[in-house]
Every structure is written in C-alpha cells, then in structure tokens.
# Entry
Amino acid sequence: MLAHLSAGIAIGLAGLGATLGIAMIGSKSVESMARQPEATPNIRITMLIAVAFVESIALYALVIAFMLLAK
Amino acid sequence: MTAAIEPAYVLWPLAFFGFDLSVTSAVIVLWLAVAIIFLFGYLASRRPSLVPDELQNLLEIVYEFWESQVTEVLGKRTVVWLPFIIGLFLLIVVSNILGMLPGLYPLTANINVTVALAVIVFITYHVAGVREQGLVNYLKALVPSGMPLAILPLMLVIELMSHLARPFSLAIRLFANITAGHLIVFTLLSMIVVYKNIWLAGFPLLGRVAVGMFEVFVAFLQAYVFAYLAALYIGLAVSEE
# Structure
C-alpha cells in the first residue's frame, strides 16, 4: 500500500517538474524563434536536446516508481 | 514490469575462468547490430562516386551532420574523435531500432549494455585528457586555477562527484528512455487482454502506432544525445583550461 502511494507521489512530482521544465523550454524557444527566424534550425536542435534532458529526469522517477511497485 | 521485457535467455552456456561469457539472445542482437553497421559502412563506401547512390548519400548525411556537430566542441581534434562518436551513434541507433522489432531483444533497455557504453565513454575521455595534457596538468585542471587553498578540498570533492555523475546519467538516461517506451507499448497492448472487448481493441492498437512513431524519434534523439555528450566530455577533457 505504502509502496503504491510512494510510487504515485514519485512519478507525480517528477511529472510536475518535468512539465514545468518542458513548458519553459518550449515557450522560450518559440519566443526566440519569433524574434530571430534565421536562427530557427539551431534553436530547434538545442530545444530538442534540452527537452530530452528534462524528459530523462522524469523517466528516472518512472524507473524508481516501477522499482517501488516491483517490490 | 519484468513481463514487459523478457530477460535474455542463454543459447550457449560458456564460462571462462569463472566469468560468465554465455552467448545469450542479447549477444546475438548485438552481433546483428554490429554486422548491420559493418555492412552499411562497407556497401556505402565501396565505390565512392561524385554522384552518390542511396547508401552513400545516407552515410554522407550522417557523416556531415556529425562533422558539423563535433567541430563545435572539438575543433581541430575532430578528425581523431569522429569515428568514435559516429560509431557510438550508429550502434545505439541500430540497437534501439532492432529492439523495436518483435522477437529481438531490446539491447538498450538492458542496464548492463548502457552502463558498459557509458563506462567506455568515461574511460575514453579521461585517457584523452591525460594524453593531451599529461597526467599532472590534467589533474591540476580538475579544479579551476587560482583557487584559494581553503576551499580546494571542497571543490575537489564537488568536481569528482560531477565526474562520477556523468557515466551514471548517460547510462540511466538511455536505459530509462528505451525501457519506458517498451513499458508504454506493453501497457497499451495489455489493455486489450484486460478489457476483453473486441470493439475497444482498436484504440490500444491506434495508440501503439502513435507510440511506435514517437519511439522511433526517441531512438534517434537519445542516440544523438549520448554521442553528443560523449563528444562534449572529450572536448572538455582535452581543452586547455
């Protein structure tokens, strides 16, 4: 029971943080693409890398959640 | 969770002085991936021509993309390190894609494989740094120069921690991304079995198609991130501070 609760809390909090992070990356990169359209390819690649980093932090929590559930 | 990715089964048990060197289904898929990369490289560069055919075109795209990426971080040392970086990229891409095919073992969803790749990168960039700057200078460059002696031990501990976190995060990132993809597919498809309703079976299948396309994107993105970070770490190690 407690393991299920903690797994839910772990993935929920990580999802919250990752969502905020990805939202910030997305809004800022759209902003800078609108300001400098000629830099769009560079910004897009950098944005995707940053999103991959943020996403992987959420996935660490997913792994932890599954480890808690598997016990 | 364990049902989503079945463990590698042993095809040919083999022990070598106490080490377990059994040929498992994972090893077979790794050999397959290496064979595909070798064949691709051989066939694409066998008859290089000014007007490239399809395979040569593909190889040129990969090469030119990585050349431009690696030049940003490695400068004039690009030629030395480009084969290593492209090799990492191709191996991870091919094993990610092979893992999506039914019946083939998903290599990069196995923590042993990703940790081995990350440790290779870890050792490589330290060796590169020592070879470039010499052991004494490389150890000196661990902490910023002009540091007051009082906070030197603290800085050294922080730097060592960050160095140790690098292979850890490389391995866990690749492992967690690919494992999560397979788990999502597993969860979607198990809905069919759970609900036992023929009229609802189409929706998990549609979802599986969407997730599958996203997973192809993730396969390339994670391979890119892994290889780019390897290039970045080598670049940080060989640059004079």
Q: What stands out?
A: The two ends of chain B are 46 Å apart (CA to CA).
